[in-house]
Amino acid sequence: MKTWIIFSCSTFIYIIFGLSPCSPPKETAELPDVVSQHPAAANYALYCAGCHGRNLEKFADKAWMSDNSKDAIIKSIKFGLSVDGMPAFEKTFSDEEIKSLADFVQKGIPKDKSQLKKPDTKNPIVSSEEFKFVVDTVVSGLKVPWGLVFLPGGDMLISERAGTLNRYSNGKLSAPIEGLPAILARGQGGLLDLCLHPKYAENGWIYISYSSPAKDGSGDSNTAIMRARLKGNQLTDQQTIFEALPMVSTQHHYGSKMAFDREGYLYFGVGDRGEHFEFPQELNNHNGKIHRIKDDGSIPEDNPFVKTKGAMPSIFSYGHRNPQGTAMHPETGEIWESEHGPKGGDELNLIKPGLNYGWPVISYGINYNGTVLTKLTEKKVWNNLFSIGNLLLLHVE
Ligand code: HEC
After folding, report:
1. Which of 59, 87, 216, 386 is the most exposed place for a label (fewest CB within 10 A)?
2. DSSP string, 332-346
3. What are the φ/ψ torsions at residue 34 (nearest 5 degrees)?
């Protein structure tokens, strides 16, 4: 069987497949010396590169980049941009160090700003531990492609976070598909994942996850799932089958990749919405959880918390930060989840019913500004949610 792995980045989609050996890819262009010898280079590498790229390549082209005044940059570094997920560094660095980082960031930005987001396609054969593969650009011009499914005939449906659903057919993108729900496309939110019903050929259901804005116009939002059928260029039979509660004003940690298991249950994660003390350890809300629902949105009778008073019955596991990947293992049928953790704390978890995966009580990571959130990487608890009071070991798998 040919293995298809899809990577997406801000402007291209790559399709990757197993191939013959060759040399590893070259790094993207190094920073000019003037910048790499900058006094803030080490702080940048340690605290910023993980999100903004070693060569600042993950900064988007924004007005402040051409603005000579550093005030806006200094303010963003010092106080963060909480709704976007940019941490505040006022406790990490002195004002001098922050000024120096701002200088470093500005000096490192090349004159040709299109470089900032360009992927490396010059040397398309990549070696990993397991495979050699070719990187090929299939669709270009997309803005933050997020979800992708192949329809039975080979066409692709591609969601863009900004709120566009595209069909890629015979080498080109058709006009955007109409009939999407109201979507809040801000911060990390927007149109998110796509998934086909396991019996798509018979029933035509397409599952779409997205950041749903509150109807009261408050600007609050949370993850929701709609299913719909596709007729020509139009979604029809739209049904909202899940809406995560409570809605909140933050615009990050929506989680949201979806996967069906062999029995036809739909699994997906909702992130902690940036409120880690509030939500993931409490069962009275949907945030910071993996959920399991039937294909029509109803609740499976054997979900672990259906009989727990006050618990959201769709919860399958809890204590998650930002569960961004959900997949069924094709051989074992197990559900695996990848979790966007704090700095150094990303996780790959095998999802089991009723388990607490520990966030934010245990974690291998630290906060992105370098402060410690928890020193614990495991903890024993009496889990009174189980009738026999099993002694459970909370751990990061
Ligand atoms: C956890 C990820 C993360 C880390 C770590 C991080 N940033 Fe950011 N940063 C973001 C996000 C998200 C944004 C908002 C989107 C954007 O402008 O790219 C942002 C925005 C910025 C901006 C633009 C602000 C504006 O007004 O538009 C600057 C400058 C910046 N970061 C500098 C830094 C520096 C310097 C560091 C290290 C000390 C750092 N960032 C660490 C995620 C991060």
Report:
1. 216
2. T--EEEEEE-SBT--
3. -55, -30
Q: What is the pLDDT of residues 116-173, one digit of tens each?
A: 765 555 666 888 899 888 877 888 889 899 999 999 999 999 999 999 999 999 999 9
The CA 87 to ligand 1 mean position distance, Å, reads: 7
pLDDT tens sequence across 21-49: 333 333 344 555 556 688 999 999 999 98
The DSSP element (H or E) to which 271 belongs, if any, is none
Ligand 1: residue of 86, 144, 373 to mutate (most ligand atoms within 8 A of CB) is 86
Tokens describing residue 186: 């801000």
Joined together, the tokens standing for residue 206 give 């397409």
Percent of the chain beyond pLDDT 70? 84
DSSP state at residue 254: -
Q: Is 200 in the pocket of ligand 1 (CB under 6 A)?
A: no
64 lines ligand 1 (CB under 6 A): yes
Rg (CA), the chain: 22
Q: State the burial class of residue 28 (Cβ atoms within 10 Å of its Cβ: 0-12, 13-18, 19+).
A: middle
Would the pTM count as exceeding 0.90?
no
Query: Which residue numbers are catalytic?
Result: 253
Structure tokens that stand for 44 in this block: 């940048």
